[in-house]
UniProtKB/TrEMBL annotation:
Keywords: Aminotransferase, Cytoplasm, Glutamine amidotransferase, Repeat, Transferase. The active site is at K352. The chain holds residues 241 to 597 of 597 of the full protein. This is Glutamine--fructose-6-phosphate aminotransferase [isomerizing]. Catalyzes the first step in hexosamine metabolism, converting fructose-6P into glucosamine-6P using glutamine as a nitrogen source. The gene is glmS.
Length: 357
């Protein structure tokens, strides 16, 4: 069945490996008879009536939401705010005239997110839940549901749900975009699925890198700019959750405003440099930390890579780089956790879905 580990030692590794297949499944699930990508017409209408989208989520789903904002704003021109559910519910910001709420929740059961849904429903605002679990609480209570089609995710640390969320967010933004699609999203997502595959096939390299670069370290930093910044937040969260190495994700340009004080001899810095418009700046930030003793590993992409880069992704559309760049970060966390003797699938103090506020 779907939820057996088979020959895998951990659910997390199995779920990491399932990602290319999940993206292909999503492409199929959202393809029309004409072969283009589309979503439910009622959901599309809800987007077309809205003057602003409010994305509400927690944890990894929040990190997917940050990337979703770029997709909606760049592809459909709809302004987006992304909020942490536990903050939004108790300190609601000023809302636009015609807000639409999008709840991103793998489980569909997160209490922090549900309390926001209850409040916005009472105010009469329309809502959509993007979830992996049909029939879940948030799916039942929202006006509309968008499904992830990722299959059951068992490991506490979310992997395939995150990449699935990114794919469905891209498809949704694309579907609600009114301009004649300049982007062939279907082809670009298929290319991204292949890039994910290439990265999941690089396990031995990532196992070695985790060993030499991370496993015996006390802390680690992830830096990036633009979309890479949001992926760096997710990379840091993954590492914290399962290896208990203190990790932080930073916007490259912010380092000099504080965090650089923490850089010591041997501090690991994972630098994401996939975005061509900002990768020269990010490479400048890497020089700033290595001059102070940090060990940096640059993750770039074919087309804007340099000879000494530690990891190079196959080329994918710039908006879709997060789908591929997160894979080596998931694998680094997995191997660091394993090498430190941690419980990969069931990290201490964490639950798969948190049904208390
Ligand atoms: C828990 C999990 C996280 C997850 C978060 C949000 O804290 O440990 O991995 O990202 O809940 O979960 P959701 O199901 O709402 O996406």
């Amino acid at each position: 069945s779907d939820i057996e580990k088979g020959t895998y030692p951990h659910y997390m590794l199995k779920e990491i490996d399932e990602q290319p297949g999940v993206i292909r499944k999503i492409i199929a699930a959202y393809s029309t008879e004409e072969g283009t990508l589309d979503i439910d017409p009622y959901i599309k209408q809800a987007f077309q009536h809205a003057d602003r989208l409010y994305v509400i989520a927690a944890g990894t789903s929040y990190h997917a939401g940050l990337i979703g904002k770029e997709y909606f704003e760049k592809l459909s021109g709809l302004p987006v705010e992304v909020h942490i559910s536990s903050e939004f519910g108790y300190n609601m910001p000023l809302l636009s005239k015609k807000p639409l709420f999008l709840f991103i929740t793998q489980s569909g059961e997160t209490a922090d997110s549900r309390q926001v849904l209850v409040k916005v429903k009472a105010l009469g605002y329309p809502s959509i839940t993007l979830t992996n679990v049909p029939g879940s609480t948030l799916s039942r209570e929202a006006d509309y549901t968008l499904l992830l089609h990722a299959g059951p995710e068992i490991a506490v640390a979310s992997t395939k749900a995150y990449t699935a969320q990114l794919a469905v967010l891209a498809i949704t933004a694309y579907a609600v975009s009114c301009d004649a699609h300049k982007l062939d999203l279907k082809t670009e997502l298929a290319i991204a699925a292949n890039a994910i595959q290439t990265m999941t096939d690089a396990k031995e390299d990532l196992k070695k890198l985790a060993h030499t670069f991370l496993t015996d370290k006390r802390n680690a930093f992830f830096i990036g700019r633009g979309l890479d910044y949001y992926v760096s937040l997710e990379g840091a969260l993954k590492l914290k959750e399962i290896s208990y190495i203190q990790a932080e994700g930073f916007a490259g340009g912010e380092l000099k405003h504080g965090t650089i004080a923490l850089i010591e001899e041997g501090t690991p810095v994972i630098a994401l440099a996939t975005q061509s418009s900002v990768s020269p700046n990010l490479r400048g930030n890497v020089k700033e930390v290595t001059a102070r003793g940090a060990h940096a590993c640059i993750l770039s992409m074919e087309g804007n890579n340099e000879p000494d880069d530690g990891l190079v992704l196959p080329h994918v559309h710039e908006l879709l780089t997060p789908l591929a760049s997160v894979i080596p970060l998931q694998l680094l966390s997995y191997y660091a956790s394993l090498q430190r003797g941690c419980d990969v699938d069931k990290p201490r103090n964490l639950a798969k879905s948190v049904t208390v506020e």
